[in-house]
Amino acid sequence: MRSTRMYTICLNVSRALVALFLIGGIVVVVGQTVAMAVGSAAMMTSFGSDVADIVCVLAGLAGLFSFLLLYTAEGKEKAGEWEE
Description:
The protein is mainly alpha-helical. It has 3 helices and no strands. It starts with a helix and ends in a 5-residue tail after the last helix.
């Protein structure tokens, strides 16, 4: 029971973090595009450093939780499904 709960938590957290990571990447690209269009170096730097740093942390956390899925009982069972 506990392992099932851990698998569900890791799965849902990793899915949420991947979605946030993808949205954050879109925000960075759109923000830098707008910054180039208006010619704002400060805005370009902000999106290229501050916002991008947050997006990189989200990507790392998504990867960590995805990796942890393999260490639950369900994850070990499902990992064998892709082996041929």
